[in-house]
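tool=predict chain=A
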Amino acid sequence: MNIASLKSAVSPDEWQLRCDLAACYRLVAAYGWSDLVFTHISARIPGPEHHFLINPYGLMFDEITASSLVKVDQECTKLSESPFPVNPAGFVIHSAIHEVRDDAGCVLHTHSRAGVGVSAQKCGVLPISQQSTFVLASLAYHDYEGVALRDDEKSRLQADLGAANFLMLRNHGLLTVGRTIPDAFLAMYLFESTCRIQVDAQAGGDVIHVNPGILKGMAEVMKTATAGMGAGLAWPALLRKVERMDPAFKT
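tool=predict ok
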């Protein structure tokens, strides 16, 4: 692809956000969570306008670059010139969350095999792994209503999510909300790992549940485990990983 660089046409803050979001798309592909050109990762651009960056519809996640990301408003209307279409239907879930969650700097949604598999289980996420303890500390569920095309679903999705940062979309997939792109990615890494471990463990026989008392205070545990840096501890290393795979993500 020959996409003209937008580095000199946008603010430094927006350019950094574009680079981080492009890296996030590349990482989702590298970890095997992508679903061809489907699903989205949206990021709010700093400022009062509530504008967002989202993937150009039709590109694989490992093709996305900082300059190919499309700027849209809350209705997913393109706000800048782009040779790529956007998918308003796919933005229904994202716009619903951005509308009511001021802390939603990034919303990441996947249709991975393990994630969809656990989303179809009546039990939902089980407390059977260390990873699951972090997810269960802030987990909500939303029942399947078909492909998310209708605006009337937004209010129900918003109510189900509440203040949680992990959302299991029943029969559909996984979603994380993060203050930043690194926060949303690390949350999804934990969510995806939780689901893969659960499916594997169930295939092996009876599982052992974590003591319920251990589930309390997991936010503080996460701070301690990451030396108080949260997702910022792993993100620089993840950026180096993307750089080694293909530095073109930041063009």
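The chain has a mean pLDDT of 93. The CA atoms of residues 115 and 173 lie 5 Å apart.
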